[in-house]
């Protein structure tokens, strides 16, 4: 499922989203978004509350359908795909990190990390387990492999979530306020971890954040204001050309 | 499927108290259904055994005597009085041929011809009205298993010997080896020796039944070489009427099945079966509603987790399976506990519930069939109950589920 070289990882053209379409209370929250993200890019998505960041992220994450426009993921339009096909692409191409960790409380850290494999294959091989343990070691949680989420701190949980988003080898990770409820130091650590995976494995990230400090450390910052991209694509200072 | 089973079991284990509650609910429901089923099965089996133990399943008897008008001129007005005739013992026409005809009927297991009628058993001042059966012991034993029911003496009906019920023996004050007089009508009588006592399990039968040799009865009733009834048993009790109908159609024989002569018993058994069915049905419905409501709550509680799983690539059908499997597991596990509980109840019933005579009322056991079908049905019911919650889980919108 790799696209031809030069194709952006994802491309949005005039994407609109209307809630309660066709009723008296219909509200358009995205007014024609044009957006491209290249392979291996690290993009920050910023904007005030209610600007449509989460909705945009959900559309990119195939969790919500757009109302109109065009969305190409690896060069392929997703508009006509069935729920099963969307689900399959979510599993194989997209990793998610949410603000409130969203780990499965009934499963250990390792099982959480390997959940995408379990979903895809129905069982976990010894190789899967080794892979998961290596990933957890890489995020600094080698000792917490068999701990349940409730036994882990917020920062640790978020690191498990990052490991999980990467365990299936997806080319794109979508993070919604990944450091939103972490203290500054932990937030920095978690952010650094994402940048490391970006540098080491070439995984692209789209990170929704409120924190201008963190946004400044992304390749590119996209600001969303009232459902529109403000001032077009802005290269972040010091980003590679 | 591996994913669904793994996640389902984890979800159940996570919701400890909830899972325990519903498990207990299923177990209780299954125990009731199983216990009632086994009890009614045992009760009905017992009733049928008691009723049919001393009865043939099919009976051919001599036709009743009817008065026939001697004159029947067409078109003429005839004034006459018709009186029913007194019925005396009569022989079945060519009973040997009837025996052969029944014996070759598929489904018939044993056939024997008997001579029977009313008589008095007299000893000294005591006289009791009895039903005298002239039997051929070998053939009759296959129908009534008389040998198993002997309590004293020997199962022997040589000429001049009779077997009598325990109650009659008590009434007349006789024991094995002593003599009584059989009297039929004003003229015929015979002195016979009691060769054994039997217990047919029903007091009234024990008071009224006397078995003699067929020849002796033929002589007493004045039917030399004749037989008043031909008895037959069949392999499938409830096929008796069908077999009787087949014989009637083929040979024109007039025969009666136990199902006709015990129509009341049959309808009582039917009513019982229907009531049991209702109890089973309602209990199953309540159990299923219980499973469904717990799973519906679980879907609501696990919204977020369902959303995450969907975001990570779990399909709608996988989410459906997760909840169907939970229903199946609850049904299976609960029913296994329930069947064990029912066994305990049945054991208690068999051992502690006793009749007025201190004997167990009847023995009930759980058939293997019941012990296997109940968990199977409960598992199926669990899956069925999980259908609606599973559909809710599958239709959750992942974006919304995660947001909340």
Q: Per CATH, which architecture of chain A? A: 3-Layer(aba) Sandwich
Number of domains of chain B: 2
**Average pLDDT level of chain A:** 86
> From N to C, what is the helix and strand string of chain B?
HHEHEEHEEHEEHEHEHEHHHHHH
CATH superfamily of chain A: P-loop containing nucleotide triphosphate hydrolases
SSE order of chain A, as H and E? EEEHEEHEHHHHEHEHEEE
In DSSP terms (H or I, runs of 4 or more residues), the helix count of chain A works out at 8
Structural class of the secondary structure composition of chain A? alpha/beta
- Low-pLDDT parts of chain A are 233-241
CATH topology category name of chain A: Rossmann fold
Strand order of the largest sheet of chain B: 2-3-8-5-7-6
Name the shape of chain B in a single word.
elongated
Task: Tell me the number of helical segments of chain B per DSSP (H or I, 4 or more residues long).
Answer: 14
* Rg of Cα set of chain B: 32 Å
Alpha carbon gyration radius of chain A = 18 Å
Mean pLDDT of chain B: 87
Quaternary state reads heterodimer
Helical content class of chain A: 25-40%
Distance between the termini of chain A: 27 Å
Into which percent range does the helicity of residues of chain B fall? 55-70%
């Amino acid at each position: 499922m790799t696209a031809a070289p030069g194709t952006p990882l994802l491309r949005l053209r005039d994407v609109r989203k209307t809630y309660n379409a066709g009723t008296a209370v219909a509200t358009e929250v995205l007014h024609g978004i044009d957006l491209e993200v290249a392979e291996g890019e690290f993009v920050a998505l910023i904007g005030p509350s209610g600007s449509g960041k989460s909705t945009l992220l959900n559309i990119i994450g195939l969790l919500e359908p757009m109302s109109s426009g065009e969305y190409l993921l690896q060069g392929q339009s997703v508009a006509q795909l069935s729920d099963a096909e969307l689900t399959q692409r979510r599993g194989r191409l997209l990793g998610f990190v949410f603000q409130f960790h969203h780990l499965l409380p009934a499963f250990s850290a390792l099982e959480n990390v390997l959940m995408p494999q379990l979903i895809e294959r129905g069982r976990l091989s010894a190789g899967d387990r080794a892979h998961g343990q290596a990933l957890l070691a890489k995020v600094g949680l080698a000792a917490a492999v068999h701990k349940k989420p409730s036994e882990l701190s917020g920062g640790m949980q978020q690191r498990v979530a990052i490991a999980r988003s990467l365990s299936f080898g997806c080319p794109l990770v979508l993070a919604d306020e990944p450091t939103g409820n972490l203290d500054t130091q932990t937030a920095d650590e978690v952010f650094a971890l994402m940048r490391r995976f970006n540098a080491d494995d070439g995984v692209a990230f789209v990170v929704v954040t409120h924190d201008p400090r963190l946004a400044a450390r992304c390749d590119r910052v996209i600001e969303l204001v009232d459902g529109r991209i403000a001032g077009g694509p802005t290269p972040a200072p010091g980003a590679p050309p | 499927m591996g994913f669904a089973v793994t996640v389902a079991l984890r979800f159940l284990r996570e919701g400890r108290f909830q899972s325990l509650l519903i498990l207990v609910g299923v177990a209780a429901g299954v125990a009731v259904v199983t216990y009632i089923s086994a009890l009614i099965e045992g009760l009905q089996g017992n009733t049928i055994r008691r009723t049919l133990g001393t009865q043939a399943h099919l009976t051919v008897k001599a036709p009743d005597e009817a008065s026939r008008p001697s004159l029947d001129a067409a078109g003429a007005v005839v004034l006459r009085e018709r009186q029913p005739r007194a019925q005396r013992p009569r022989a079945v026409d060519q009973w040997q041929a009837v025996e052969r005809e029944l014996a070759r009927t598929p489904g018939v297991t044993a056939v024997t011809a008997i001579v029977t009628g009313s008589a008095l058993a007299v000893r000294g001042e005591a006289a009791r009205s009895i039903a005298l059966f002239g039997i051929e012991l070998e053939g009759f034993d296959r129908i009534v298993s008389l040998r198993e029911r002997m309590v004293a003496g020997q199962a022997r009906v040589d000429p001049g010997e009779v077997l009598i019920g325990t109650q009659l023996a008590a009434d007349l004050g006789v024991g094995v080896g002593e003599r009584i007089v059989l009297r039929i009508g004003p003229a015929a009588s015979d002195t016979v020796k009691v060769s054994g006592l039997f217990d047919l399990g029903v007091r009234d039968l024990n008071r009224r039944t006397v078995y003699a040799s067929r020849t002796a009865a033929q002589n007493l009733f004045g039917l030399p070489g004749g037989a008043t009834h031909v008895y037959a048993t069949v392999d499938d009790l409830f096929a008796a009427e069908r077999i009787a109908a087949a014989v009637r159609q083929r040979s024109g024989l007039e025969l009666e099945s136990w199902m006709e002569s015990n129509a009341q018993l049959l309808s009582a058994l039917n009513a019982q079966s229907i009531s049991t069915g209702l109890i089973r049905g309602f209990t199953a419905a309540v159990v299923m509603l219980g499973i469904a409501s717990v799973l519906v709550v679980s879907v609501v509680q696990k919204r977020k987790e369902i959303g995450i799983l969907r975001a990570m690539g779990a399909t709608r059908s996988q989410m459906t399976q997760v909840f169907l499997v939970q229903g199946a597991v609850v049904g299976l596990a609960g029913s296994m506990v329930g069947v064990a509980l029912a066994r305990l109840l049945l054991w208690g019933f068999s051992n502690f519930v006793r009749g007025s005579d201190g004997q167990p009322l009847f023995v009930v056991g759980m058939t293997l069939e019941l012990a296997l079908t109940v968990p199977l049905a409960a598992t199926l019911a669990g899956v069925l109950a999980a259908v609606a919650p599973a559909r809710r889980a599958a239709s959750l919108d992942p974006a919304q589920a995660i947001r909340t």
